[in-house]
Amino acid sequence: MSELHDIGRLITREGWRRRRIYELRAVHRGREIVLYRTADRIVYGQVTRALVRALEEEQRGITGKTR
To answer: What is the pTM of this model?
Structure first.
């Protein structure tokens, strides 16, 4: 997690039906990567919230410690 930078969200439209595609992207070791990609808005929101919580915990130094 500590090597991920510039984490961002992207919503695009794709295919002949122009469905929405939700992506989480980040820069890892100087290259842009897709962390997660889905057409499911609900699951995308859940994954995004989980990532935000994990990043917050890492910043507080909680990750890997017993609660």
So the answer is: 0.76
